Amino acid sequence: MLTCREVSDRASLYLDGGLRWHQRIGFRAHLVMCKACARSMDQLARTLTVLRAAEPAPPAAATEDSILQRLAILRRGSGADHVDQEQSDRS
Amino acid sequence: MRKNEVVPDEDADVIALLKAGDEAAYRSLIRAQHGRLVRLARSFCRVAATAEEVVQDSWIAVFTGIGEYRGEAPLRSWIAGIVVNKARARAVRDGRIKNFSDLVQAGLEAEAQMPGAEKFGPDGAWREAPAAWDDVTPERIVGDRQLVDHLGEALERLPDAQRMVVMLRDIDGHEPAEICRMLGISDGNLRILLHRARLKLRAVVDGLVSAGDGAAPGHAVLPRRR
Q1: Least confident range of B88-92, B105-109, B190-194
Q2: CA separation (Å) from B49 to A58, B45, B77, B192?
Q3: Is B8 in the A-facing interface, judged by CB distances under 8 Å?
Q4: pLDDT averaged over every residue in chain B
Q5: Which of A51, A67, A87 sits opposite B171 (nearest CB)?
Q6: Which of A37, A47, A55 lies closest to B202 in CB terms?
């Protein structure tokens, strides 16, 4: 039987699906029997929900145009060297 | 996603359009992902203008390199990987990061013990049961900017490597294997960084909730919803 501290230490692994099946069973059994650990897991899950609630700012209107203009210049041929550089940056 | 698995169906049409050079597809992808990618780049570069520049450069790399994309990773993870590479290179060039592995080590050693370890007795049982967060409802999370902003500020204060993994895993939802590949870290180190960061962020929300209950004076008070 896992202790509460062991459950806490494995909480992220559980949320990420990183526990093996027999570990998962032991983990879930502990949560069913231990209200404190069930609350602790609930807190962690709600924290992640709050984190995901922050929406990033949308791109400025000119951003798309600026990127596509740069791309067009590169593709017109004058920037062949730059394209090579971009490709090396990806690797 | 495991290596050699095919890309999800929803990506397939978009990828075909991108490979064909469809400008509307380019625009749609930029609109959908630019803000998220700038936020990711900021976790490396810290300066908003630099992060913006890094992501714009990344888009050029994405569109010029889309022909090489083979679908081993989801499209958005492939794009995020390009942003991470460029943001890391830029942070090193600007002197913000000397050596990425030092950053990971600092994230692993940021605390002497696991955050919240003091809440357990020597027998491994809770000294005091955690509070129920009845006030932190989905409606509250959506509507309460103070809560979201406060946690966002706490995220900014995390050690660099902890902030980066939270950003990639918990906010952007990339698979652990993809994150390990992007950052060049082991699965074990990813798990440790992520868990420590999550516990610290949970403690921040708990401080706000407790202060709202009058149980922890000195913390910022999270006003009750009316």
Answers
A1: B105-109
A2: 15, 9, 23, 31
A3: no
A4: 85
A5: A51
A6: A47
CA dist., res. A23 & res. A51, Å (int): 27
pLDDT at position B213: 56
Confidence of residue A85 (pLDDT cuts 50, 70, 90): low
User: A87 contacts in B (CB within 8 Å)?
Assistant: 61, 64-65, 68
Residue A70 in contact with partner chain B when CB distance is under 8 A = yes
Closest CA to B129 of A6, A4, A33, A30: A4
Give me the helix-helix angle, B176-183 and B75-93, nearest 10°: 30
Cβ proximity of B202 and A11 under 8 Å? no
Reduced to 3 states, what is the DSSP secondary structure of residue B142?
helix
Number of structural domains chain A divides into: 2
> With contacts defined as CB-CB under 8 Å, which chain A residues touch B88?
none
Among the CATH numbers 3.40.50.10490, 3.40.1190.10, 3.20.20.70, 1.10.10.10, which is that of B100-212?
Answer: 1.10.10.10
Token match 């050029």: residue? Answer: B60
Tens digits of residue pLDDT in B180-226: 999 999 999 999 999 999 999 999 999 888 776 544 333 344 444 33
Q: DSSP label at B120?
A: B
CATH of span B9-93: 1.10.1740.10
Q: Are A9 and A42 part of one and the same domain?
A: yes
Q: Which of B80, B176, B154 is nearest to A12 (CA)?
A: B176
Q: Which domain holds residue A44?
A: 4-52
Long-range Cβ contact pairs of B98-104 (< 8 A, separation 24 or more): B100/B183, B100/B184, B103/B159, B103/B160, B103/B161, B104/B161, B104/B183, B104/B185, B104/B189, B104/B193
User: Do the domains spanning B9-93 and B100-212 agree at the CATH topology level?
Assistant: no
